[in-house]
Amino acid sequence: MILLRHGQSEFNLLFTQTRKDPGIVDPVLTPLGHSQAEAAAEALAGEKICRILVSPYRRAIQTARPVARRLGLPLIVTPLVRERYAFTCDIGSPATELRMAFPDLALDGLDEVWWPAEEEPATQVEDRAALFRAEMAALDDWAHTLVVSHWGFIMALTGQSVMNGQMLRVDPTEPAPPEVPWRHP
Q1: Which domain of life is it from (predicted)?
Q2: Interval 70-79: pLDDT, tens
């Protein structure tokens, strides 16, 4: 499968400059983030992707949409691949707000409040990543899946730190990383 970290968000831009939480709830992409999403769509145009799984955060949906348009695929929104709740940006938008912002997106199974109420311990995110790894490994066509997610979830799944707009190929049938080095770039 291919993992794609969302493009640069308003939070990423300000946090990179100050290393302080700027207090932005469910931020959207910056112009650079939109460019990164378009670049991902271009880079993935030749891939044989049959499904796109995406986190319910707006920055992930905005990153996935150009890829979905390019490939003619629907987005499958799943909170399982959401970010680790650690900053203000990890407070999501309620499902009713997402339905208004993205009326063409199927959000039928999404709870109104789909993010945790408090900061997630690293072990909880690692458990969520292990569950996702097992679910993907059970699919015959996992290699044709794109997952648009976040730094923390990708770190928990692979043990690797990725930048905004960066992609990784992952074989979910291989073992999980023995240790997750929880350091943000």
Answers
A1: Bacteria
A2: 999 999 999 9
